[in-house]
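Researcher: Here's a chain I'd like modeled. Treat it as a single chain, no partners, no ligands.
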Amino acid sequence: MKLAIFDFDGTLFPHETLPFLLKQWKIQKYSKARLYHIYMMIGGMYIWYKLGFGKKHREYMRRTALQKFTRIFTGMTNTQVNLFFEACAKQVVKEFNDSVVREIKKAKSEGFHTVILSGCYSDLFMYINRDLGVDTIIGTALYFKDGFIDAKKELSVCIGSGKAKKIKEIFAGKDVDYKNSTAYADSVSDLSIFELVENPVAVYPDEELAKIAAEKNWRIIK
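Model: Modeled as a single isolated chain. Structure tokens:
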């Protein structure tokens, strides 16, 4: 089995998912009070990160931001949360990176087992994948208790250096040909995935990844 692994934020989807979901929460006219509360919880952290001050703690900040964002769904049922994600997915697919979509289709036609690997919500990807038909989705599962979301339960978020470990866990016992597998990502934080396969592809890479890709003669999409 050959894998074609695709990152989501900045790769298939040219934006960051959490700010996009906040925007959709407002557009879909959900609670303004909850929206402002989440802005207050993660807004400063996000600005700090975008200004470059939090790069050394990138994984911690992303994991913490997702955990805090989840509180926006407090009191919502599984059905209500999925209705939100379904509406969001309709907008997400409109903004896909066309070149990456073509790579997914090409990989499928060449017999690769396609994978989307992201730290964001797997519940969202369930709807996004209706259009893509990717074989395996690896994301962050939400927890529910008695039909309502358990927003305080610690999430198992797969990001950064933990991605390669997650791939190995999911495909443990499978005959995976990593030498002939490929991975697509945009950030230096995805190096663990690139080092797992023989054929990395840097997609609109950040400055650090672009430098590494050039040095190692990896394929670059930009």
